[in-house]
């Protein structure tokens, strides 16, 4: 499938690229080395119009499509995968979930602040004993008058320590399995909500990952998103979009690793010549380029098809979306690993960007569904039901 970017999409890409060059690139190394989340970037990203990139203009969003979001996260990831990850959790997992599933009153109450960057968003699903097995969450919610009282613990929550607004899932009927989960809008100042430990990751440092504690947390009954006990449909509805969106980050990291490797191969000299003149180095560069381009067009075309499916004008693309993030994430790791090899000893030093790319890349094979889970999903769809 050929993908021709529209003028609006090209403008978004160029605008985000210039912003990243000017505002994020000078602090990217500090973000990583100090594990620092520069919250002041959020209102600037809001001014840029990308925090609510797929949200309607009526709520402060840009009203753009999924491919525009992929282009935005790709450009951010070229400079800082950490900011890209936090951006994806905010703009896609939080804002887009609210856009697709919240009531009109909820959208008007929460989306403007999330779109202008005065609030940070997150999604809270994963728990210590429920990662790939999302239905296995143990956080409970019971109705008590005008509020639901939530108890439980969330883990590995991107933006968790910074988030003002979270889309959070809890069991409202623990005996009903997947049919007993409800989605809630939770604010950080609700009684009984507390941030637990801040997790120390090897990569994506500067994108805060936290444990969240819910101890008789009181959530207004009006903050239920979607239908009661139908939270799993909220999860499933956005999966294809989530996977295609996040795959854009993998493309950005791979592009940055290839670009740095090309520059180094032209500059570094050994045995009296540029290392890029050696055929083995050229072969590595050729493979890095080819795989990155293959991943790019798989991701872009999947984004176009996922958008069509979301708007009712196309078929569901569950296996295609899983394939796009599976392939892009593994390409990203291979390209980043090759970049370290090309840089040799310097590539293994923390002060070089390529070492950061490799640390960042690995998470994309783990988060938002591991490579193993993605393969299972694809395999099951290919096999279809038993006749």
Q: CATH top level of the largest domain?
A: Mainly Alpha
The fraction of residues in strands falls at 15-25%
Which parts are unreliable, with pLDDT below 50 for 5 consecutive residues or more? none
Number of strands: 10
pLDDT averaged over residues: 94
Q: Rough shape?
A: globular
Write a structural description.
By secondary structure, this protein is an alpha+beta fold. The chain folds into three domains: 113 residues, Butyryl-Coa Dehydrogenase, subunit A, domain 1 (Orthogonal Bundle); 108 residues, Beta Barrel (Butyryl-CoA Dehydrogenase, subunit A, domain 2), CATH 2.40.110.10; 146 residues, Butyryl-CoA Dehydrogenase, subunit A, domain 3 (Up-down Bundle), CATH 1.20.140. Helix content is 51%, strand content 15%. The strands form three sheets. Strands 1-4-5-8 form a four-stranded mixed beta sheet. A four-stranded antiparallel beta sheet has the order 2-3-7-6, with helices on one face. A hairpin with a 2-residue loop joins strand 9 and strand 10. Helix 10 packs antiparallel against helix 11. The chain is globular. The mean pLDDT is 94.
Short description:
The chain is of the alpha+beta class and 387 residues long.
What keywords describe this structure?
alpha+beta, four-stranded mixed β-sheet, Butyryl-CoA Dehydrogenase, subunit A, domain 3, Butyryl-Coa Dehydrogenase, subunit A, domain 1, 387 residues, globular, 10 strands, Butyryl-CoA Dehydrogenase, subunit A, domain 2, single chain
Helix and strand layout, with pairings?
Elements: H1 7-24, H2 28-34, H3 41-48, H4 66-79, H5 81-101, H6 104-116, E1 121-124, E2 140-144, E3 147-158, E4 165-171, E5 181-187, E6 193-198, E7 209-220, E8 224-225, H7 231-237, H8 239-267, E9 269-270, E10 273-274, H9 279-310, H10 318-343, H11 353-363, H12 371-383
Parallel strand pairs: 1-4
Antiparallel strand pairs: 2-3, 3-7, 4-5, 5-8, 6-7, 9-10
Helix pairs in contact: 1-4, 4-5, 4-8, 5-6, 5-8, 8-9, 8-10, 8-11, 9-10, 10-11, 10-12
């Amino acid at each position: 499938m050929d993908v021709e970017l529209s003028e609006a999409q090209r403008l978004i890409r160029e605008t985000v690229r210039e912003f990243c060059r000017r505002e994020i690139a000078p602090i990217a190394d500090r973000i990583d080395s100090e594990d620092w989340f520069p919250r002041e970037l959020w209102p600037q990203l809001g001014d840029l119009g990308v925090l609510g990139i797929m949200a309607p203009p009526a709520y402060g969003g840009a009203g753009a499509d999924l491919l525009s979001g992929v282009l935005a996260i790709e450009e951010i990831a070229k400079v800082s995968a950490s900011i890209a990850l936090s951006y994806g959790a905010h703009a896609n997992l939080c804002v887009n979930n609210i856009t697709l599933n919240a009531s009109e009153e909820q959208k008007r109450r929460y989306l403007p602040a999330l779109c202008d960057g005065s609030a940070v968003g997150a999604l809270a699903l994963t728990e210590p004993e429920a990662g790939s097995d999302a239905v296995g969450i143990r956080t409970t919610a019971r109705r008590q008058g005008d509020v639901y009282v939530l108890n439980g613990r969330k883990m590995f929550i991107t933006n968790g320590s910074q988030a003002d607004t979270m889309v959070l899932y809890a069991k409202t009927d623990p005996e009903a399995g997947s049919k007993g989960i409800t989605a809630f809008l939770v604010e950080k100042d609700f009684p009984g909500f507390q941030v637990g430990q801040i997790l120390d990751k090897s990569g994506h440092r500067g994108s805060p990952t936290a444990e969240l504690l819910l101890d008789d947390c009181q959530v207004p009954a009006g903050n239920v998103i979607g239908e009661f006990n139908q939270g799993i449909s909220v999860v499933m509805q956005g999966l294809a979009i989530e996977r295609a969106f996040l795959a854009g980050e993998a493309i950005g990291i791979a592009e940055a690793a290839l670009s740095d490797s090309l520059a180094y191969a032209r500059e570094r000299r050994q045995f009296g010549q540029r290392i890029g003149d050696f055929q083995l180095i050229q072969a590595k560069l050729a493979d890095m380029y080819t795989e990155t381009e293959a991943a790019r067009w798989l991701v872009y075309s999947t984004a176009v098809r996922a958008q069509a499916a979301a708007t009712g004008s196309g078929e569901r693309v569950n296996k295609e979306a899983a394939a796009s993030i599976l392939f892009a994430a593994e390409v990203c790791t291979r390209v980043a690993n090759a970049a370290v090899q090309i840089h040799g000893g310097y590539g293994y030093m923390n002060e070089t960007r390529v070492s950061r790319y490799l640390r960042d890349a690995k998470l994309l094979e783990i988060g938002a569904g591991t490579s193993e889970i993605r393969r299972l999903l694809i395999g099951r769809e290919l096999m279809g039901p038993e006749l």
